[in-house]
Write a structure and sequence with these properties.
By secondary structure, this protein is α/β, with parallel strands linked by helices. The protein has helices at residues 17-27, 53-61, 65-70, 93-96, 107-120, 149-155, 224-230, 238-243, 284-301, 305-334, 338-354, 356-361, 364-367, and strands at residues 9-13, 32-36, 48-51, 72-74, 77-82, 87-92, 103-106, 124-126, 139-142, 161-173, 181-187, 190-197, 201-209, 219-222, 248-255, 267-269. Helices cover 37% and strands 24% of the residues. Helix 1 packs parallel to helix 9 and helix 9 (284-301) packs antiparallel against helix 10. The mean pLDDT is 92. Bound molecules: flavin-adenine dinucleotide. Flavin-adenine dinucleotide (FAD) is lined by residues 13-19, 36-39, 49-50, 129-131, 143-145, 149, 167, 169, 205, 251, 271-273, 279, 282-286, 288. Flavin-adenine dinucleotide binds at residues 13-19, 36-39, 49-50, 129-131, 143-145, 149, 167, 169, 205, 251, 271-273, 279, 282-286, 288.
Length: 376
């Protein structure tokens, strides 16, 4: 730490994963941090998150690793299955990345942990603060998610586009003691991801392609029967899981492209405000956590704020563009139909049988990334 951030006023708009992680990283470097959050309380809808090692390296560097491990499960594997439930391939995380920590955590527990840690580092979190334009003062960090007001200030008005994907999310009780693995069931035009969470719970995310999205809201409570009907053809444990759903929310997955302009020397965007993604690489929160660390480190090291913000942009842009593109490709791969689906599943089965390390090795570029080891 250089001391360059000592007593520097920083205002962060948004108390999500990006804003709270940045608040902790900056307060630990002695900045005077205020977070403005429009919601009247720090609360999260029930849902799970997978946190991969590239995010965990930052969580550890912030001194939150032990607490995070206490509220999460270590993921052993990712199983790819077809509609019937039969295994197509298995990415064995323990075998092929034994030193890495893939965690399964309830989003609400993660946000509570980050908010408590930010407050104890001296961050002021002000609730019920809807920000329309960048506030006056020192550095402004736009961590205000997909419909970011700070992004609009930097890039002009852009309308998010519907990605033709909708996602139901639900958490169900699961006392079966199932192994901590993420399971992905791939069907034509839809897929379902599930994994257990601490406390006898199981997270479900069920994605369906849909050409029309006419609801006004972008996320709302839905009838669990709609979810059951959409996935009625799925086998294995899926019917039992879906029977257990008593409450579900549905999201229309809207996106912008990666923002053209991330910063203007005074304001800077991080997390979904800068680069919203489809959730099919499970990297949105992970990218937000990487951003938070790297932004704080650039500001700590930079000779001046505009140079530091430029450096942040140049360090992050190609990585997040690569991840967003990989998530888009997964959307296609998971939902294949007909002969393409047969060919892709056969290739996966063969790779699983003859070169299982290769399947996971394709993602080394993603999981090996170490924000903490970058020299600033
Ligand atoms: C179905 C689904 C599954 C996912 N699974 C994973 C996963 O497994 N792993 C993973 O890493 N990621 C996952 N993600 C992505 C991840 O949830 C997001 O990328 C991440 O939460 C983005 O964090 P953020 O802080 O940038 O934005 P947000 O979480 O959207 O937070 C923005 C905050 O800003 C506040 N705000 C907004 N506008 C204003 C304003 N004008 N004034 C003041 N405050 C404002 C909001 O209330 C909110 O608190 C998933 C996403 C979806 C939809």
């Amino acid at each position: 730490m250089s001391g360059a951030l000592r007593d520097r006023p920083v205002t962060i708009v948004g108390a999500g994963v990006a804003g709270l992680t940045a608040a902790i990283a900056l307060a630990r470097r002695d900045a005077r941090v205020t977070v403005l959050e429009r919601a009247p309380a720090i609360r999260e809808l029930g849902a799970g998150l997978q946190l991969s090692p590239n995010a965990m390296r930052v969580i550890d560097a912030l001194g939150l690793g032990e607490a995070l491990r206490g509220i999460s499960l270590r993921s052993n594997a990712v199983q790819l299955r077809d509609t019937s439930g039969a295994q197509v391939a298995k990415l064995d995380l323990l075998r092929h990345r034994p030193d890495d920590d893939f965690r399964l955590v309830h989003r609400a527990r993660l946000i509570e942990l980050l908010a408590a840690s930010a407050r104890s580092a001296g961050v002021e979190i002000r609730l019920s603060q809807e920000v329309a334009t960048p506030p006056e003062g020192g550095l402004i960090i736009g961590a205000d998610g997909l419909r970011s007001a700070i992004r609009t200030a930097l890039n002009g008005r852009e309308v998010p586009f519907f990605t033709h994907q909708t996602a139901w999310r639900a958490v169900i009780p699961d006392a079966t003691g199932a192994p901590p693995e993420a399971q992905v069931f791939m069907g034509p035009g839809r897929h379902l991801v599930s994994y257990p969470l601490v406390g006898g719970l199981r997270n479900l995310v069920a994605v369906q392609e849909r050409h029309e999205w006419q609801e006004e809201g972008w996320s709302h409570e839905d009838d669990p029967d709609h979810l059951r009907r959409a996935f009625a053809a799925f086998g294995g444990p899926v019917p039992e899981w879906l029977d257990a759903v008593t409450e579900t929310h549905i999201w229309g997955l809207f996106r912008h492209d990666v923002a053209r302009r991330w910063q203007d020397g005074r304001c800077v965007l991080i997390g979904d405000a800068a680069h919203p993604t489809l959730p099919f690489m499970a990297q949105g929160a992970a990218m937000a956590i990487e951003d938070a660390w790297i932004l704080a480190a650039c500001l700590d090291a930079g000779p001046d704020q505009p140079t530091a913000l430029n450096r942040f942009d140049s360090l992050r842009r190609s990585r997040v563009e690569g991840i967003v593109a990989a998530a888009n490709a997964n959307a296609r791969n998971y939902h294949l139909t007909g002969p393409l689906r047969f060919a892709a599943h056969t290739a996966l089965r063969l790779a699983h049988r003859f070169a299982p390390g290769h399947l996971l090795g394709r993602f080394d570029w993603l999981y090996d990334y170490d924000s903490v080891a970058i020299t600033f």
